[in-house]
TrEMBL record:
Localization annotation: Membrane
The protein, known as: Receptor-like serine/threonine-protein kinase
Entry's Gene Ontology molecular function annotations: ATP binding; protein serine kinase activity; protein serine/threonine kinase activity
Native source organism of the sequence: Carpinus fangiana
Residue ranges constituting the Bulb-type lectin domain according to the UniProt record: 35-155
Length: 802
């Protein structure tokens, strides 16, 4: 369908381009600064706009791009290359050329159309003096009436969100009471933390909530044009206008995984998203087919209706979750899979159940209906669908081992060629089954075929089954990289994984070229890992553009991040040990021409960005990836000090022993979780520990193994324990703050940020892995969207061997 539309619109665009430009476009634009009784009426074809004093916003009749004879009376961002409507008088409906905006003799502002007034509510003033004007903040004003009280799908900075709430342009989704995102006016798929209503978005990029809580945008602090919009896909996003790229960029969104939004697919269907560009597709589970006569969004129906409930079996779909609504869901405390299955089997209304292999007995029965299904590794759940015994379909949602492992080098350590080829065979088999199923059910209709092909290509990508090399990272030749780096002459870093050189590709992209040492495994494994790394996209991860595997060399080609690594900014160079008497006040802008000293809000943004990226690696991307070497050297700073994590995914290429000895050698012992030196399994919580240490360093501006304070050189001294004593026992937060910017610590403005960073760090640094929060939780703790309870003191567990 989409292809047809695209095709038709291409033809249309072509026809338009050869026909003479329409007369409306040729008329000179008539700009007014206010609209009053003597200007009335204002008709759509007048080509007139009302401009705000700062020229950023404009109001007027805008025609619909696809049918230019239809209009809305709107307010839009005018002074941007991507003009964006932020308000419409008629919401989702359109008027034609016969409409008019009038101020009547009695002073009422009306949008006349077909004998009715479509202006939202009664706007009245004095006809002799009242004017319609547009303020510089985008608020359209007429007497006591203001457009900020009647938002459509967008909230502008400093506009109160309370009141009537906003609705997506297509009318499917609403943000109700400024707390709940609703599908179909009733089903809530997202709620502001603790039901605390949003109040407004302020100029610096903070979304203020009623209780003083807040969400912050990725570009917090920058003065940019922003807007909070409920998009047609049901996600609530904050966009920020990037004047350099000249486009709107998403700097915050309520929902990370788009398939968790209700109503994307119809009943029984499963929503799958390609994490990269937030496109989604809907697929039918095994045993189901597309509802007859329906579009793919309409949903699926069972192929063999269940007549005898006892004559059924269950198909397991890994990582799939459905809802049935509160009245159709039963939570069972099941001992194991068998007993969970039995309770569903016994219930004639039960259509399936969700089960977690975590030994904690998560078992949820879904009765009567299956809606809002989606696939996501984050669910860690398998869905068991009830089908007739005679059903021959086999499950195509596989990939979960019975015990979920968060893998680091320990578990998947080394070459596994048999495994590798097995998965490839499996992957190909899945794709083949999908194709076969589809071809059988939807025979030979050309457009249908194309549509399905695209659908399954998307799904295959999502499931990580991409076998088309075109989608993978670029393979460079050694000669190419040699030329790009000028024979590896510009060494910019020496990391644990190898040396890094700066270079420039033939297309003038500046790159960082990392020559790996001691890489385990052969070519296929390297290729497989690199493909996985290249598939990870996040604002706060360094992009991998390509690689080279030639003559035993293993080289990765990354985007070049200009500002260097975090350690250069937070630690004082060449001044390792200093004592408390060594009080120095330094110019925060530059320290002997060195790097600028980062202020609190920049530090906070860095911490948050890093936390989000690690959470993405752990929880959201399609493979579980542990970083295993988080430290300030691996956090690079891009434009505007946007943090970018490097070296992620590389841990998989190494052995545990290697990691431990390497880290000791390089003196990064200080970042390693206790379990590295015990014989315990390494889980994602090891990264949480390392992050906690980095977080504490960001606050203190001191290396954790470089002593600060009088207890230095003591065997008993443990940095997190020391910080805990200062902050929570002695209540002297100032004592641990980076003394270079201590003086700029305005406790009112920064207390919240610093307090959250310190408390979160304490939780991350707990000795026992299970005491530490997950990285997703850590990000929320930093954001302030979950409550942080009082941490326990991080205890001393292990004193280095030096
Ligand atoms: C209405 O606006 C016009 C300019 O658009 C101005 O000349 C006129 O004085 C205004 N009338 C009133 C009553 O403000
Ligand atoms: C926005 O307005 C300013 C000042 O009026 C102007 O210099 C700039 O070019 C405008 N930008 C766009 C995108 O129109
Ligand atoms: C505008 O729409 C109205 C009814 O909605 C119709 O009566 C009228 O003819 C239309 N006018 C134009 C110019 O299309
Ligand atoms: C708008 O509607 C009002 C009330 O029906 C009428 O008095 C007025 O003449 C109309 N104005 C225009 C320009 O259509
Ligand atoms: C609109 O409000 C004004 C005063 O606020 C009132 O006089 C008028 O009758 C109202 N008109 C309608 C149609 O409600
Ligand atoms: C508008 O001005 C006229 C004369 O200039 C006056 O008669 C009329 O009462 C005024 N209308 C209002 C609502 O003040
Ligand atoms: C919205 O909240 C502001 C304060 O934040 C208050 O002044 C205003 O009256 C509220 N508006 C509505 C419609 O509730
Ligand atoms: C919104 O608030 C109203 C009144 O406070 C309440 O009845 C309604 O349930 C709320 N809606 C949601 C989705 O929370
Ligand atoms: C929306 O809700 C109504 C009843 O409230 C229901 O009849 C309708 O099927 C729902 N639509 C969707 C798409 O779920
Ligand atoms: C659940 O059932 C109760 C009682 O039958 C009813 O009042 C309530 O509206 C139902 N809730 C939903 C979401 O259907
Ligand atoms: C299922 O039903 C059978 C008999 O109808 C009963 O013996 C059994 O205990 C039930 N199992 C569960 C889990 O309810
Ligand atoms: C499955 O989806 C429901 C409804 O969205 C949600 O409440 C539940 O937490 C999800 N289960 C898992 C394991 O994610």
């Amino acid at each position: 369908m989409a292809t047809v539309v695209l095709f038709l619109s291409l033809i249309f665009a072509f026809l338009l381009s050869i026909s003479p430009p329409s007369s409306a476009q040729q008329q000179p634009l008539n700009t007014i600064s206010s609209f009053n009784f003597s200007n009335s009426p204002w008709r759509p074809n007048q080509n007139q706009i009302l401009l705000s004093p700062n020229s950023i916003f404009a109001a007027g009749f805008r025609s619909q791009p696809s049918s230019p004879e239809l209009y809305t009376f709107s307010v839009w961002y005018h002074n941007v290359s991507e003009e964006t409507i932020v308000w419409s008088a008629t919401g989702n409906s359109w008027v034609n050329g016969s409409a008019a905006l009038v101020i009547t003799a009695s002073g009422q502002l009306r949008l006349n159309f077909s004998g009715r007034n479509l202006w939202p509510q009664n706007a009245s003033g004095n006809p002799n003096s009242t004017r319609l004007s547009l303020r510089s903040d985008g608020n359209l004003i007429y007497s006591n009436w203001q457009s900020f009280n009647f938002p459509t799908d967008t909230i502008l900075p400093n506009q109160n969100i309370n009141g009537s709430g906003i609705t997506s342009k297509n009318g499917k989704y609403s943000f109700s009471n400024a707390t709940d995102l609703l599908f179909n006016s009733t089903d809530s798929y997202w709620e502001a933390y603790k039901g605390n209503a949003f109040q407004n978005l302020n100029d610096s990029g903070t979304l203020v909530q009623a209780n003083g809580g807040s969400f912050v945008t990725a570009d917090l602090g920058d003065s940019r044009w922003r807007r909070l919009t409920l998009d047609d896909d049901g996600n609530l996003r904050i966009y920020s206008y990037d004047p350099d790229q000249r486009l709107w960029v998403v700097v915050w969104k309520a929902i990370q995984e788009i398939c968790r939004i209700y109503g994307t697919c119809g009943p029984n269907a499963i929503c799958i998203s390609d994490g990269q560009n937030s496109s989604t597709s809907c697929v039918c589970p095994p045993g189901f087919k597309v509802t007859l006569g329906g579009a793919k969004e309409k949903g699926c129906e069972i192929k063999i209706p269940i007549k005898v409930p006892k004559n059924t079996k269950f198909l397991r779909l890994d990582y799939v979750n459905y809802t049935s609504g509160v009245n159709y869901t039963i939570g069972v405390n099941a001992k194991n899979l068998k007993s969970c299955e039995a309770s569903c089997y016994n219930n004639t209304k039960c259509l399936g159940f969700g089960f977690k292999y975590d030994g904690l007995g998560y078992c949820v029965l879904r009765l009567e209906r299956l809606i809002y299904g989606y696939w996501s590794p984050g669910t860690e759940t398998a869905m068991f669908l009830r089908v007739d015994k005679s059903e021959t379909d086999e499950t195509n949602f596989i990939g979960m081992t019975n015990l979920l492992e968060t893998t680091c080098p320990v578990n998947i350590s080394l070459p596994l060629p048999p495994e590798e080829s097995k998965t490839t065979r499996r992957n190909i088999a899945i794709v083949c089954i999908l194709f076969a199923l589809e071809l059988i059910s939807g025979v030979g209709f050309f457009w249908g075929f194309v549509k399905k092909y695209i659908k399954y290509r998307d799904m295959a990508q999502t499931l990580g089954l991409e076998f088309l090399p075109a989608g993978g990272p670029k393979r460079f030749t050694f000669a190419e990289l040699k030329a790009a780096t000028n024979d590896f002459s510009n060494l910019i870093g020496k990391g644990g994984f190898g040396d890094v050189y700066k270079g420039e590709l033939s297309d003038h992209r500046v790159v960082a070229v990392k020559c790996l040492k001691n890489v385990a495994g052969g070519d296929p494994e390297f290729w497989a890992e690199v493909t996985i790394i290249a598939r990870m996209h996040h604002l706060n991860l360094v992009r991998l553009w390509g690689f080279c595997a030639e003559k035993g060399k293993r080289i990765l080609v990354y985007e070049y991040v200009p500002n260097g690594s975090l350690d250069k900014y937070i630690f004082q160079r060449g001044r390792g040990n200093f004592t408390e008497s060594d009080e120095m006040e330094m110019d925060p802008v530059s320290e002997n021409g060195q790097n600028p000293i980062l202020d609190w809000s920049v530090r906070y943004r860095i911490a948050l960005g890093v936390a989000r990226a690690i959470a993405y690696l752990h929880e959201e991307c399609l493979e579980w990836v542990l970083h295993c070497d988080i430290k300030p050297e691996n956090i690079l700073l891009g434009d505007d000090f946007c943090p970018k994590i490097s070296d992620f995914g590389l841990a998989k290429l190494r052995k545990k022993e290697d990691m431990v000895s390497m880290s000791r050698m390089r003196g990064t012992r200080g970042y390693m979780a206790p379990e590295w030196v015990k014989t315990e399994p390494i889980t994602s919580k090891a990264d949480v520990y390392s992050f906690g240490m980095v977080l504490l360093e960001i606050v203190t501006g001191t290396r954790n193994f470089e002593m600060q304070g009088s207890t230095k050189n003591s065997e008993e001294w443990y940095f997190p324990g020391w910080a805990f004593e200062k902050v929570f026992k002695e209540i002297k937060v100032e004592d641990i703050l980076d003394r270079r910017i201590k003086h700029s610590y305005d406790s009112r403005a920064h207390f919240g940020l610093v307090d959250r960073m310190v408390k979160t760090a304490m939780w991350c640094l707990q000795d026992r892995p299970e005491m530490r929060p997950s990285m997703g939780k850590v990000a929320k703790m930093l954001e302030g969207t979950v409550e942080i309870t009082e941490p326990r003191k991080p205890t001393i567990f292990f004193l280095g061997d030096d």
